[in-house]
Write a structure and sequence with these properties.
InterPro entries: FAD-bd_oxidored_4_C, FAD-bd_PCMH, FAD-bd_PCMH-like_sf, FAD-bd_PCMH_sub1, FAD-bd_PCMH_sub2, FAD-linked_Oxase-like_C, FAD-oxidored/transferase_4, Oxid_FAD_bind_N
Largest sheet: 8 strands, antiparallel
CATH architecture of the largest domain: 2-Layer Sandwich
Family: Belongs to the FAD-binding oxidoreductase/transferase type 4 family.
Number of helices: 16
CATH topology of the largest domain: Uridine Diphospho-n-acetylenolpyruvylglucosamine Reductase, domain 3
Cofactor: FAD
CATH class of the largest domain: Alpha Beta
GO molecular function: catalytic activity; FAD binding
Structural class: alpha+beta
Organism: Caballeronia sordidicola (Burkholderia sordidicola)
Number of strands: 19
């Protein structure tokens, strides 16, 4: 038996004593659901999957892992897109799943906060807020299965960033288990607290490499009285940008969502999900899904929206539009947007990019990068959609019709990634807007970050996790930091 296997054996025995046998999974049929990432791009092995029931059990597990020198992979709902919650193939790492820690600890409707454990499902938090006539503004496609701990660890975005910000902006305080097994209680529901370094923001977006988030105080907002949702047809991404500027002038902070969908994106949806109808009588180059949230009245929201659309059509920005007249139609509009990734999967493997550029550059970025890719790979099909209101594009490349998708990926993925990332860099953007780095984009991130930035990141990692046991090989390259 190797030294690593010996450490793992004694570690697992100690965990069974500390957490109970039912909460230490070692059989392959029990651990399998925790070992493959959401997109099935990565699969690892583990010495055990731990299911702690409270913060003190997490702390105990971390102390045991440190004692036995067992690397830790924290995991929430396992819905990530970059392999950040998947162990490596060695079998020496332990997965600590927070899914049992799913309680909503408190809700304060005067302070407009909700205190939740890291394993709480996002949709459950939304529902609990709604019961108190409050809005928890984070919303994304995986909300029925993703957890708030994972959302915080990746600083998830979603569809309402334009008005409410990323997960970071929605968080006021954290509870964290450090790599030493200590518990930092930072569950303060304060909007003003200038008493030193902002530890909260350090852990948000760190993907479990600096500690394990076990609970959080999250912001709530008054529930909107009305939502006005519409689809607008336009010629180009540049027209969508001009429309966005007009919408901001008219609606200001009432503008909650502004999603861009290319014609081919919607074509894939209506092809693979024929029950979802194309919303216009003729095809258009781009479609925008926009939503206003009004705290005054539905009549006020619809009147404001009417003035916006009148001006947009007078300016020649919008070619056609349809406004949802019921909750079911609102859901149908959003379903079109949310089914784009599912339709892509039905069409076949594709080259995905979760990138961001300054909002004002989106039109130029798409036009220039589309042209470069078309020149390099004739016939390729572009699936461009995303959160235009915050500069985040899912800029995906589908093989030409009739081309084997597997072969397409094998031949072109590296060169297409390089081309897209060079363009992103040229436009002063980011190669990861909301999915995190995980293990998918570590080398690319190191290529585009400055030496100063990398040294600062390594210094933080060294200071907080000198033994490099917290989610190694994620965010930073797998090396003993020094």
């Amino acid at each position: 038996m190797t030294a690593s296997n010996t450490r793992s054996k004694y570690f697992v025995e100690a965990c069974i004593e500390a957490l109970g046998a039912a909460n230490v999974l070692t059989a392959s049929h029990d651990t399998a659901p925790f070992l493959t990432d959401w997109r099935k791009r990565y699969r690892g092995e583990t010495c055990a999957v731990l299911l702690p029931g409270d913060t003190q059990q997490v702390a105990r597990a971390v102390r045991l892992a440190r004692e036995h020198r067992v690397p830790i992979v924290p995991q929430g709902g396992n819905t990530g897109h970059s392999g950040g919650a998947t162990p490596d193939a060695s079998g020496a790492q332990v997965v600590i799943s927070l899914r049992r820690m799913n309680r909503i600890r408190a809700i304060d409707t005067i302070n407009n906060t909700i205190t939740v454990e890291a394993g709480a499902i996002l949709a459950d938090i939304q529902t609990r807020a709604e019961q108190e006539q409050r809005l928890f503004a984070l919303s994304l496609a995986a909300e029925g299965s993703c957890t708030i701990g994972g959302n915080l660890s990746t600083n998830a975005g979603g569809t309402a960033v334009l008005r409410y910000g990323n997960t970071r902006e929605l968080c006021l305080g954290l509870e964290v288990v450090t790599p030493q097994g200590d518990v930092w209680d930072g569950l303060r529901g304060l909007r003003k607290d200038n008493t030193g370094y902002d530890l909260r923001d350090l852990y948000i977006g760190a993907e479990g490499t600096l500690g394990i988030i076990t609970a959080a105080v999250m912001k709530l907002h008054p529930a909107p009285v009305a939502r006005v949702t519409a689809l607008a047809a336009l010629k180009s991404p540049q027209a969508a940008l001009d429309f966005f500027a007009t919408a901001q002038r008219h609606a200001g902070p009432l503008l909650t969502g502004f999603e861009l969908m290319s014609d081919f994106s919607l074509h894939l949806v209506t092809t693979h999900f024929p029950q979802m109808r194309y919303p216009f009588s003729a095809r258009h180059g781009q479609t925008v899904l926009l939503e206003l949230s009004d705290n005054e009245s539905e009549a006020h929201g619809r009147a404001l929206f009417g003035r916006l659309m009148e001006q947009a059509m007078e300016q020649g920005l919008v070619e056609d539009a349809v406004v949802a007249d019921s909750l079911s139609q609102t859901k149908a509009f959003w379903n079109l947007r949310e089914h784009i990734p599912l339709a892509q999967a039905q069409e076949g493997l594709n080259i995905k990019h979760d990138i961001s550029v300054p909002i004002s550059s989106i039109g130029d970025f798409i036009a220039q990068t589309d042209a470069l890719i078309a020149q390099a790979i004739p016939g390729v099909r572009m699936v461009t959609f995303g959160h235009l209101g915050d500069g985040n594009l899912h800029y995906n490349v589908q093989a030409a019709e009739g081309v084997d998708p597997q072969g397409f990926l094998a031949e072109y993925q590296a060169s297409v990634n390089a081309l897209v990332y060079e363009q992103v860099n040229a436009f002063h953007g980011s190669i990861s807007a909301e999915h995190g780095l995980g293990q998918l984009k570590v080398s690319e991130a190191m290529h585009y970050k400055s030496p100063v930035e990398i040294r600062l990141m390594r210094a933080i990692k060294t200071a907080l996790d000198p033994e490099n046991l917290m989610n190694p090989a994620k965010v930073l390259p797998d090396a003993r930091v020094s």
